[in-house]
Specification:
mainly beta, globular
Length: 506
């Protein structure tokens, strides 16, 4: 009825973990959000120690059900059913917990604390719904699969949907189809010859979100990866930065699959208590199959983010010589949407350093062909800065190994925050220029290389480069190349996130 709904784990009493309830917010565009009253409290024996992760499924006729993990009075993870009290209410304010909960308990051989995060359901050709739940046996991460007709009575499949030894507990398992030849998302139950299935799990040990592409065999409800070397937990990441517990849904209005992800904090609990909040969601991202590489997903900010653009600056062919930085003269640098394309001019000099060592130790680790890129959330003296950069193994892009990286080592003068270097290889094809899109929001930087082939989310804590003191620079720490950069930079407005105005007409 015109609203996007987001439910999220929330502690209404504090900015630190505990007393987990379901917060609830709605939006017309997934950018401007309005807070609603709490949807579910931990108030039954089957969820008294927490209303944890869950997923919604829209059934034929518009009926909505939610399966969610409850932590019981005996600290056992179980799956519970809930549904809206009033389906004619577009805000879905009131939720009813099924009195016969739990509908699923840990099966034999699965530990009481290793059974959580039910997926959105999909329907098979036999008319039964399937749901997958994250788990592990020993150190083998796995996804259990169940069938049901009514979401009350379930039968467990003889096989796992999938399992990967050595990956540990799988959280927030997500399973969905993706078109290999289309530009639209697919409803969750679709299957067929032009479809691959994405299996994604959040790795509890490594705290990263891993995925793989593969084939779903509906006859026995198993999934097989295209490339076993890049199986779930040992291969591709949705995001190489500060990112976890992601979840997709199918937007039936705009026919697209949307990915939400969680950015958690690296500061101290006392810092969180002082600022009064902790953790946030990324800008929602669309999910498509990469038709060029045919080996990975493309993730891209939803088009609605463009509604926040208020003014723009363009810079054409800015030359940045080895070892130099160039300030970009824009009015404010705290809320930005940046597109940048890079051309490379090789110099005669040999350069110094090794040339194919990934992201190196950060943006100061020089080699012949990188690093070069942007310095975001920087102050005038560059005492604080977060470089977003490329690094190449040679200047022939088609045959080079190209890395895309974000360096947090100088992002903050604050002592008690994490300051890692994030990054990964990114494919650059013959007909492509090096390109990045960077969304800056005060202390969050979401960076997308090559149209979303590689994504890095950074959570930084600037102390000097804040508000009017924040600046944006180009830099080139390569020793053997000039770079020529073309940019378009938009200032972004606030999203004005606030409580729902019940006292005013919407």
């Amino acid at each position: 009825m015109g609203w996007y709904h987001l439910f999220y784990q929330y502690n209404p009493d504090s900015a630190v973990w505990g007393n987990i309830t379901w917060g609830h917010a709605v939006s017309r565009d997934m950018i401007h959000w309005l807070y609603l009253p709490i949807a579910m409290f931990p108030n039954k024996w089957f969820d008294i120690n927490g209303v944890w992760t869950g997923s919604a499924t829209i059934l034929p006729g518009g009926k909505i059900i939610v399966l969610y993990t409850g932590d019981t009075n005996e600290y056992v993870q179980v799956q519970n059913l809930a549904y809206p009290a009033n389906l004619s209410d577009p805000l879905l304010l009131d939720w009813v917990k099924y009195p016969g909960n739990p509908v699923l308990v840990p099966p034999p051989g699965i530990g009481p604390k290793n059974f959580r995060d039910p997926s959105t359901a999909w329907i098979g050709p036999d008319g039964k719904w399937r749901v997958t739940v994250g788990s592990k046996k020993g150190e083998t991460g796995l996804s259990l699969i169940y069938k049901t007709k009514d979401f009350i009575n379930f039968e467990q499949n003889d096989h796992y949907l999938h399992a990967v030894p050595g990956t540990g507990m799988w959280e927030c398992v997500d399973f969905y189809p993706i078109s290999i030849n289309g530009s639209k998302g697919l409803e969750t139950s679709v299957n067929g010859p032009q479809v691959k299935h994405v299996l994604k799990a959040s790795m509890n040990k490594a705290r990263v979100d891993c995925y793989a592409l593969g084939t779903y065999f509906v006859e026995n409800d198993t999934w097989v990866p295209d490339n076993p070397v890049e199986d779930v937990g040992i291969g591709l990441l949705l995001d190489h930065g500060r990112y976890y517990a992601s979840k997709t849904f199918y937007d039936q209005v705009k026919e697209r699959r949307i990915l939400w992800g969680w950015i958690n904090e690296t500061d101290t609990k006392s810092d969180d208590l002082r600022k009064g909040w902790a953790s946030l969601q990324t800008i929602p991202r669309t999910v498509l199959f990469d038709n060029k590489t045919r080996t990975n997903l493309l993730l891209w900010p939803v088009e609605e983010i463009e509604s926040l653009r208020v003014s723009s600056d363009e810079f054409e062919g800015v030359v940045v010589k080895p070892g130099s930085t160039v300030p970009l003269n824009i009015t404010l640098a705290t809320q930005l949407d940046i597109f940048a394309e890079f051309e490379i001019e090789t110099l005669a000099s040999e350069g110094i350093g090794k040339d194919n060592v990934g992201c190196g130790k950060g943006a100061t680790d020089r080699s012949a062909f990188g690093p070069f890129g942007l310095l975001a959330i920087a102050d005038d003296t560059l005492s604080e800065q977060t470089p977003i950069y490329f690094r190449l193994s040679n200047t022939s892009l088609s045959s080079s190994t190209t890395f895309f990286c974000v360096d947090e080592t100088r992002s903050s003068k604050a002592p008690d925050v994490a300051k890692p270097v994030y990054g990964s290889k990114v494919s650059v094809l013959d007909d492509e220029k090096l390109s990045m899109r960077v969304l800056v929001d005060h202390s969050i930087i979401e960076s997308f290389a090559q149209g979303g082939r590689t994504v890095i989310t950074a959570r930084v804590y600037p102390t000097e480069a804040i508000y009017g003191a924040a600046r944006l620079f180009l830099f080139n720490n390569a020793t053997g190349i000039n770079i020529k950069v073309s940019l378009k930079i938009w200032q972004l407005n606030s999203a004005f996130i606030r409580p729902f105005p019940f006292d005013k007409s919407q």
